[in-house]
Amino acid sequence: MSSIPRTTITLADAAPSLAHAVEEFQRVAYPGRVDLVTRELVRIVSGTLSHCRICRNLRLTAAMDRGFDESMVDQLADLDRSNLSGGQKAAVSFAHAFLLHPDAYAPGDLAALHAHFSDEQIAELTLDLIRYRPGSKLIVAGGTEPASEGLVIV
Amino acid sequence: MTVPTGLERLAPLFLRKPAYAGALAAVWTAVWDQDVVDVATLELCRLRVGQLLGADPQAERIDGDWLASLPRWPTDPRFDERVRTAIEFAEQLLMDAQGVDDDLATRVVREFGEDGFLVLIYACGLFETTQRAQLVTGLLPTSAAGRTTVAR
């Protein structure tokens, strides 16, 4: 791990077309069919499991405006005892399975997710999870993480 | 909607979220089209990440016999120092990006330049998440009103 940048350039400098496509990938992600608070929780889980300080401490104002609050983040550590909604718990469990043991994902797990989300919404959550981690890796391995654990609201 | 080579198993995503998945396809294509890191090295990284995830990856851009040699990359003479560095980097990024130490980062930059260092990080992250997605989306239904074409 390094908190000292290992390069003085960005992905846009290194591969402009790739960086442009990544920006477009981010742009078309919103709005979606899954509520923004649930997507924010999934994004934070991804950032946490990717050991990315920026990713786990970033907060979207749009999600906060729709009911996201910090107590929800605290509850992610003990999902079974949390006050999160059934859909939020299912989405977070899906994120854990995706990022920790996707090979063990079983039809029963998918059925539990389907109890709360449509096929389109599950596809959206999956694409979110595909999108988040490569950016987290750039920050962590590139050594551009901030030293502070402070929240960043955008 | 055309699904690019390598993402065929994600066809359910293209059926359900065509615009969002189409943007993923554009990123995927840009990874392979950039001219900083060669395709063969990227393909070996993709395959190794897939092997470690248990995703049963198939060689699409290099001869298939490389697949069997890949687990022995540290000692197999088919792999030169540059490729070994890339695969070591891909493995470490998959296991824990925080574990990329200064020595490994320096060796990657020496072999691929700073631009290659960044391209490899992003590409390996994408190889990881797309293959994780293949494992979970294999369970998703593939029937839908729309049609999906698989590129070859």
Q: What does this protein look like?
A:
The complex is a heterodimer of chains A (154) and B (152). Helix content of chain A is 60%, strand content 3%. Chain A is mostly helical and 154 residues long. Chain A starts with 10 loop residues before the first helix and ends with a strand. By secondary structure, chain B is mostly helical. Chain B has a domain at 36-133: AhpD-like, CATH 1.20.1290. Chain B has a two-stranded parallel ribbon with strand order 1-2. In chain B, helix 3 (39-53) packs parallel to helix 5 (81-95), helix 3 crosses helix 6 (102-137) and helix 5 packs across helix 6 (102-137). Chains A and B meet through helix 1, helix 2, helix 7 and helix 9 of A and helix 1, helix 2 and helix 6 of B.
Count of individual beta strands of chain B: 2
- How much is the average pLDDT of chain A? 91
**Percent of residues in helices of chain B:** 55-70%
Q: What name is given to the CATH topology of the domain at 36-133 in chain B?
A: AhpD-like
The CATH superfamily of chain A appears as AhpD-like
Number of strands of chain A: 2
Unreliable stretches covering 5 or more consecutive residues of chain A: none
Name of the CATH class of chain A = Mainly Alpha
The percentage helix of chain A is 55-70%
Task: Report the average pLDDT across residues of chain B.
Answer: 91
Strand order of the largest sheet of chain A: 1-2
Tell me the greatest interface: A-B, 56 and 56 residues
Order of helices and strands of chain A: HHHHEHHHHHE
As residue ranges, the low-confidence spans of chain B are: 143-152
CATH homology group of the domain at 36-133 in chain B: AhpD-like
Termini gap of chain B: 14 Å
Radius of gyration of chain A, in Å, reads 16 Å
- DSSP helix count of chain A? 9
